[in-house]
Each structure stands twice: as C-alpha cells, then as structure tokens.
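Q: I'm building a small set of examples for a reading group on sequence design. Run inverse folding on the following structure and report the sequence directly after it, with nothing in between.
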C-alpha cells in the first residue's frame, strides 16, 4: 500500500485496508459454509388432507432442509402433487401407506423423504378429483434462502456503502 505522508493519511489507508479485510471475511464465510453445506434441519410433518384443504396449508423450510412427510386422508382419496419437485402422492383414506410417483417410478411407503434443494414457493395441490371444490384444494411449500448468507450479504453491502461515504468525506476534507 502507498504510504501517504502525515498521520491522517496513514490512518485512512490503514482503516481502508481493515475495511476491505472485514468485508471479504464477512462475505466469504457463508460462501464457504454454502460450499460445505450448512447444517440442514429435519422436519417431520404430518400432512392431513380433507375436503377441501391441506393441514398445514403452508410449509416453511430453509433450502437444504430434509422433509419427512407422512400423510392422512380424513374422508376420501386425495392427492398431493408438489409443483417443481416431481412428486405426486396418492393418499387413500384411513391408511398410513401412500403411493408415491416420482422420477418415473412408483412405490408404496409410509413416509416420503424430500430434500428441499430448490428455493422458492411451490404449490401443492390435490391430484385426485375429490369433489366440487377440488380445484381449490391447494397449499404452499415455501423454501427460504440461507438466512445467514442473506444477512452477511446485507452487512457487506452496508459496509461497502458506509466505506464509500467515508472515503468521499475524507476526500472533501483533504481538498478544502
Ligand atoms: Cu382432494
């Protein structure tokens, strides 16, 4: 780094360098975490299907989380088709065994394990015609981003902006 004569210049150069190191560290940490995979959480959820709604109507998880889904149809046969995740489950009434179709194969299981590897909002809807209001039997899976990453990114932007304002004020101070 170029040495600026006078204590004030030296102080600014040092502060700028410290700022760069801080921003790089804060921005870099979650990137490294993402690469190695931040600890995923596991959610065991019982999805109850009945005319004409799902319970829970909204499922919120974070990207990378593991969903262990069990199903119960309380009246007639319902379906659980999850958009964006290639998953279609047929839920017979009064049974814990469901038929799962995904990736071109079909199997009968008691629990469906799903990794929420895609962020965004995905509708789940009944895929078995179950009555007059069947088209309105929908729910939503919300897969949120890595909060740590979003927080660190915001902090980095804030630091950069703050640093920029600071440099401008310093430049004006020196010019006058
Ligand atoms: Cu239905």
């Amino acid at each position: 780094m170029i040495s600026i004569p006078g204590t004030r210049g030296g102080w600014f150069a040092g502060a700028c360098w410290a700022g760069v190191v801080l921003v790089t560290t804060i921005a870099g940490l979650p990137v490294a975490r993402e690469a190695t995979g931040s600890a995923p959480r596991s959610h065991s959820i019982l999805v109850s299907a009945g005319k004409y709604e799902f319970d829970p109507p909204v499922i919120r998880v974070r990207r990378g989380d593991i969903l262990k889904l069990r199903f119960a149809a309380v009246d007639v046969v319902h379906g659980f088709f999850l958009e964006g995740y290639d998953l279609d489950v047929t839920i017979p009434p009064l049974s814990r065994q469901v038929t799962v179709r995904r990736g071109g194969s079909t199997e009968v299981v008691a629990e469906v394990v799903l990794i929420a590897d895609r962020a965004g909002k995905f509708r789940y809807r009944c895929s078995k015609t179950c009555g007059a209001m069947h088209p309105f039997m929908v729910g939503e899976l919300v897969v949120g981003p890595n909060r740590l990453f979003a927080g660190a990114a915001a902090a980095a932007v804030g630091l950069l902006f703050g640093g920029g304002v600071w440099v401008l004020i310093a430049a004006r101070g020196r010019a006058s």
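The chain has two domains: 9-37+148-175, 42-145.
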